[in-house]
Amino acid sequence: MAFKLWAGSSASIPTGALTGAFALSVLLAACGGSGKTDAPGAVAVPQCSGASCGAQGQPPGTPVVAAKLCPDALDYSTTYTGGSGSGEYIKMQFNSATKKYQMTFVESAVPISVGQVNVTRAGLTITGDYDNPTGSFALPTAEQNRCAIVLKNGTTADGTYSVTINPQDPPMLFVGEGIIGGGIPGATIQFSGVTSLGFPIGVVPQRTFDSYPFLGFSQTVTDFTQVAGAYNEVGFRMSPEGNPAQGTDGLTTTGWAPQAVQASETLNADGTCTPDSSPNSCVLTGTPWTVRTNADGSADNVFVSRANGLAYPAAGVGVLQLLFAPSLAHGIMIVGKVNNQLVPVMIRVGYAHTDNTATGILNNALDDQLGISLLAPATKIAQTALKGGYIGANSASACGLVTTIGQSPNPIYVNGQPVYAASGTCTDGSASFNPGVNYGATLFQSPSAALLNPFTSAASSNFSLDFTQTQPGIVNVTATKPLMSGSTALYQAGDTGVMVQVGPVYGLLMNGINPTFTTNDPAHNIGKVNPFLSIGAFVE
To answer: Residue 234 falls within a domain, yes or no?
Structure first.
């Protein structure tokens, strides 16, 4: 696959030229990432003119060979290890001969049924059928469709748990060489809270998610000395029960509070994290990162960090963490290796346990913030590095329309200092159910770029890029056209954000800094409560 680029602003990028360019998913890095070091150099070609040139072009009848975007066949001998926006650590396999898949939720805080939080998808394995995309989900070329997967169903071997698939917005995955991404099956979540104290605590309003964004790898690294270094982090979190800044009384929560993570930090060879002065720096590191141990005592192929004290670190202010014993919430770091480039992905696996008995109050635990982050080296990005086409999944499938009361009139105390925060709410139905938005593609034509619908190649949004980089590796972004899902703006023209790059993968975070203020002035103290995270892989 190849892109033809046009001069001019991002708004002038012809969408028709993108036919075939964006078929892939967060995952066709195998086509050759921008970080590849073995690309051939320029070749000197002798010049000719007129009849001396001889026959030009391809010989008649020579077939055009399409670039191979994914393995010729998939079977259960290849395992993809990754993480999701739902804070789930997952392993998956596929059999392209039978169109079957297997997915194991190794770690998860997603409940298997509404009305409770104690029984989750952790440890469950589902099997199911899949198809390649057709109809309105068809991608521009046959090769792209061969490498794309549309999940149809999924159930455990004993039939006690099945996922629900919305045929209008099914989970889609895109397979490349060594990398896979897109969406995994979602869930419906609701909990009425714990009433042991005479009033409900930890109420989670009902939400239905068609899918959760996912990124995984067929090869991972387990030597942390290879991972150590200075990084920029972009991430997205959700707190299911919300936080006190959502209500005017400082007590009432409305649930499903989004929280961005935009930070810089240093990961040390011993697994510790050294923060800088940025908000939420090292917010996903508790105990030093070590290789996770499986239930049978064998070494896993990911890293884990646990609570260093009572609670596991959480992003944002006013996060509800109700604990009488050390939290079982933890972090998982998956370090993929793609085209000889390391791509670190971190997830926060939340934890909640309830006991409504009269004597069971000390058995209750609430530390259920969940989410995903991408780490990218804190080194300056050349303006020529971000070019061509990428595709990926984003946070719109979890949180699209965000409502807010604005700045809360009630203070939240942080290290003894009162701050007045603003928080958003993603209610049921607020997520995007538009696959053309949830699996958006990106075309870079520095110093501008465009987001596009990968199925129609229609432009969805445009933004400008500023490569000044006062913080190395952080490219400032300004939206010049809003990103719409139907009549809902996921972000507006004029909104700002940042972009990072690690090997063949990029991360875009809009509205990543939600400021807190020490004064209560709602008319002038405006928060940014609608973060948007997109993670995509280089196509070509």
So the answer is: yes
